[in-house]
Amino acid sequence: MINIFWFRRDLRLDDNHGLFKALKSGLPVQPLFIFDSEILNRLTSKNDPRVQFIYNQLFEIHQTLKKFNVGLQIEIGKPVDIFARMIQKGSVKQVFANQDYEPYGQQRDQAIQSLLKSHGIDFHLFKDHVIFAPGEILKADQLPYTVFTPFSKRWKLQLTPNQVEPFDPISLFSNFVRTEFSFPDLEATGFRPASIQVPAMKIEASIIGNYANNRNFPSLAGTSLAGTHLRFGTVSIRRLVKMALQTSETWLNELIWREFFMHILFHFPHSANQNFYRKYDPLQWLNDESAFEAWTAGKTGYPLVDAGMRELLATGLMHNRVRMVTASFLTKHLLIDWRWGEAWFADKLLDYEMASNVGNWQWSAGTGCDAAPYFRVFNPTEQLKKFDPELSYVRKWLPEFDSFGYIQPIVQHNFARDRALLAYKKALTPQL
Ligand SMILES: Cc1cc2nc3c(=O)[nH]c(=O)nc-3n(C[C@H](O)[C@H](O)[C@H](O)COP(=O)(O)OP(=O)(O)OC[C@H]3O[C@@H](n4cnc5c(N)ncnc54)[C@H](O)[C@@H]3O)c2cc1C
C-alpha cells in the first residue's frame, strides 16, 4: 500500500506542511501533480507564462527527486477522473494535500473527498498557504472581519512563533516510493513555451528594509516580486512572514492584506463576481467597448495609465501603485464595470490570485469591503507628478511619450470625474 502526496499550489520540496505530514504517515509516499484540464481550458493563450512557470518548477522538483531515485508522477486531465483511475489499482491508502481556499479548489476537493471516501480512502488537507485559515481570525461575535485594520490587529495578536516554524521534509525523503516516471514535454499539456518569464523574488534586506520608503515609486525596484511565488507556492508564506517580522512592519501588513482578501472571498463567495456591497448593483456602467480596448492597449492618453497597461502586456506584472491608478481610471473615468478589468488582469497577471484581484478591483471601484470611498477618484496626472516625477517609469514603457505621436486623452479628467460621481450618487440614491 502507498500514500499519495498531491502537489497543487505548493510547488516546493522545502517547508511544505502537507508533504511533511505525508512523509511521516508510515507508508511510502508517491508524489503527484495533475495539470488540471478544467483550469487549463479556461486560459486564453496557448503560451501562457504561468503554465510554463509551473512546468519549470515541476521539472526542478523532478530533478531533485531523481537524485533520491524518486519519480514525480505527472498527469494531465480532470483530477476526479485521474484519481478514479489510480484507485482502481487498489494500492492507495491515503491522500495528502494542502488546503486551497478558492471557490474552484473547494469544489474540486469536495468531489475528490467523496470519491475517495466511497473507496474507504482518507483525504487529509493541511494549512500551508496561509498563516491563519479562513475561520481562524474572527470578531468577538464569531463573525468574519470586513475591515482590514481590526483584522490585522487580531492577526498579529494571535501570531505565535510556532506559526512560522518550517515543516522541513528533507530528512524524510527516504519515505518516498522508489519508482521512475518519465517527465512529459510541455507540449503534452497542450501549451507552448512562453516568451514572458516569472522574475526571481527579491527578498533581500536591502529591498524589504526600504520597502516603506520605496514601495510607491514604480521606477524603483522597491518591492519583493513575491506575488507569483506565493501564488504557486514556490516560496513558503511562513518564511516570508518570519522575514517581515524581522525587517518591515509595512511589508508584513501587505502579506496580511493577502490573507484578509482570502478570508473575505471564502466567507463571502458572492464577491467573486458580484459587488461585495449589493447597494452598488444599480450602478449604470457605460461599458464602452472601444474605451475598454484603448485601456487594455495602453492608449488612453494618460501616461501613467498607459505605461502601466504596457508594462502588464510586456511583463505580466504591474506595479501596485499603477494597478490602483489604472483600475480607478477604468471604473471611474471610463465607467467600465470592474469585472471587465478584473478579467483582463486575471488573464494577464503572472501573480493573479482570485481573492486579491477581486478584492483590489472592488477596493478601486468602491464596491468592496473596506474599499476606497466611491468619491475618491485618482487624478492620473497628479499621481504621475507624485509617484514618477522624473518620468522614468513612463519613458521606460511608453517609447512614444516624448514624440508628437503621443495621443490626446480619450476623456477629459474633470468631466469624467463629475460623471462618475453622479453615476455613483444615482446608484445609491435612486430618487435622484
Ligand atoms: C486592481 C488590482 C489588482 C490586483 N491583483 C492582484 C492579484 O491578482 N494578485 C496579487 O497577488 N496581488 C494583486 N494586487 C495587489 C498588489 O498590487 C500586488 O500584490 C503587488 O503589486 C505584487 O507585487 P510584489 O509581489 O512585488 O509585492 P510586495 O509589494 O513586495 O508585497 C508582498 C506581497 O504582499 C501581498 N500584497 C501586497 N499588496 C497587496 C494587496 N493590495 N492585496 C493583497 N495582497 C497584497 C502580495 O502577496 C505580495 O506579493 C492587485 C492590486 C490592484 C490595485
Give the SSE string: EHEHHEHEHEHHHHHHHHHHHHHH
Proportion of helical residues: 40-55%
Approximate strand percentage: 5-15%
What is the top-level CATH class of the largest domain?
Answer: Mainly Alpha
Characterize the quaternary organization of these chains.
Answer: single chain
- Overall spatial form: globular
* CATH arch. level architecture of the largest domain: Orthogonal Bundle
- CA-atom Rg in angstroms: 23 Å
Say which CATH homologous superfamily of the largest domain is assigned: DNA Cyclobutane Dipyrimidine Photolyase, subunit A, domain 3
Which cofactor or ligand species appear? flavin-adenine dinucleotide
Largest sheet: 5 strands, parallel
**SS class:** alpha/beta
Total count of helical runs of at least 4 residues: 19
What topology, given as strand order, has the largest sheet?
3-2-1-4-5
Question: Separation of termini?
Answer: 70 Å
Uncertain segments are none
Mean pLDDT: 97
Total beta strand runs: 5
CATH fold-level assignment of the largest domain: DNA Cyclobutane Dipyrimidine Photolyase, subunit A, domain 3
Number of domains: 3
